[in-house]
# Entry
Amino acid sequence: MDRLVIEGGTPLKGRVPVSGAKNAALPCIAATLLTAEPVRLRHLPAVSDIRTMIKVLQSMGSQAEIEPDDEGFEFSAVLKAEGLETAELKASYELLKTMRAGFFVLGPLLGRFGRASVSLPGGCAIGARPVNLHLEALERMGAEIRIDHGYVEAQVPGGRLKGIDHTFEKVSVGATENVLMAASMASGTTILRNAAQEPEIGDLARLLVAMGASIEGIDSPVLTIHGVEVLHGCEHDIIPDRIEAGTFLCAVAAACGDVVLERVVPDHIRSLIDLLERSGCAFTEREGPNGTQLRIQRDCGQKLYAKDIITGPYPAFPTDLQAQAMAVMTQAAGISVIRETIFENRFQHAMELERLGANLRIDGSTAIVAGPAPLTGCTVMATDLRASAALVIAGMVGQGRTEVDRIYHLDRGYAGIERKLRNLGARIERVGGGKV
Ligand code: EPZ
# Structure
């Protein structure tokens, strides 16, 4: 099992490319099920979740041509869901237990074929992760759904979903994405209210429009979809990963330095930029050859100031950056109160940060962090994707050697993070078995 070995105390300097967004690429890959024609997706991050998602589609008969890029952080893929009319259209538990976003195939399969057998994704380290909001909307659109041996067995009498006016009881990224894809081929108009507004949903909607879908209100909480009978192939560039970008910003804020992020959309992480600016970091934005460049500076002698954080649906502070920001706040002067409002168990990184020397206390869904606390290296264990990133950040701050075990969690969502950090001057090595 791989682990990362980090010698802390080195500032980060240089330029780092941001890869395509994992959480945009996953639903976009699922959306290719909506057409028999080839769809080329560029800037797919070279991470295990993306490879697993492509396997889910291949298991149902989709064809995939992979075109790796030269640096190995991203790749392009041409996906073609042709000849699936008589396929079983089953997304297996074996695949979905490792990558729950495979559940995103339910919407497109019902939208195009009117039938699907998709494993319930189950919970994960950060919470129960129910899918009731997905199923409730799809049933209202006419799908008959039963749970049988851990699978969602769904079919649409008459073969085609019908448009509905639907208000999600709770903001859900996955439910918005699944139902948006289903509605793109339903009969009539679907209105989705209280829809999630994360940039990844806008990216999916723009892919669907490029495939011929008719969608209004993109990037707003009310999506209006006029269903069409057929969607066609296209090419699409996946947006930059705002969470990877935010992770690098937190690394510089915590370990200090001067780094330029390339191909980033600053507005997608405005809440984090605002937090780190108020904490004492300096930012500059400029247009570069590959899109916007974002420079973050934090001099090593400069004090960081503790700030409070409350996670929430976009554009509020993203839950996927909560762990990384907590690592930063362990180095900030004062008390930072961090409230996690999205997931019920997303503080597992806190106990590991304490082992490194952080001074914090957990009270239900609130963490109270007192800083600055000197960190010293030790062996810590990753428990989930973003917690792993927080431990890597803390390891780069901690004096001495930190070993982060179980980094298969990290490999799910970060393409070559140790290579990118080493290119910025970090002393970090991957040790252990082969690649993921
Ligand atoms: C997506 O998960 C992301 N994953 C998560 O990123 C991210 O943390 C989350 O959105 C919130 O932004 C992908 O996009 C692949 P939700 P998702 O549905 O869609 C509850 C990462 O680190 N809920 O917005 O599963 C749910 O329990 C991952 O990259 C229901 O109650 O999140 C949670 O409390 C982690 N019923 C809240 O809503 C449902 O049917 C938000 O979940 C669905 C969700």
